[in-house]
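TICKET #2291
ISSUE: user wants both folds in one file
ATTACHMENT 1:
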Amino acid sequence: MCHTPDVKAWPPPPRLRLRSTGLAAAFSRSTLVIDSDQPDGEHPARYYAATVTNQYARIVHATLSGGLGYVFPYDDVTPDGGVNQAGPVSSGSPAVLAVAVGSVH
């Protein structure tokens, strides 16, 4: 007879959530291959530097202002003490919204 325990551990504890989000970001940024302690100790200059990486995210971040944006789930994961990686566009007193459609080059 098979016994299935009750699943009462949802949502996962904060440390597990941090670990899973950091790993998801590390896979996409290809930083997991150079450092297993994710996301701490990482610098944005090392993101997407490996041969096998998320090329779409690399290209999008290279064209966005400040390199910030939300290209994949958990793209806002930031190392402890690091620069905020979230790329929200917001203003407390907006006056103008300009939208450009076309080539970036």
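ATTACHMENT 2:
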Amino acid sequence: MSSIAAISVPKDGQIEESDEEEFGLTDREEADLEKVFAREQNAVVNAEAYMEQLARELSILDGVHIVPVLLIEASEKFVRVI
């Protein structure tokens, strides 16, 4: 079992920290918490991968939209020359 500093809440409502171990996590609770934290870590990793994918797609879209703009500018210059 893990040792956790306990917080006592007396009837007057004043919170005091205690060095005494008043409760702890069971092995099962600790394993469950580790699973939750692992899922959260995966969510962060997945979010980072998703952001990288979106950045790549945005870059591609920027390139797709720049070509027509450049073509319009080139045709406007051509029209001015004529």
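RESOLUTION: both attachments delivered.
EXTRA DETAIL ON ATTACHMENT 2: The helical segments are 27-81.
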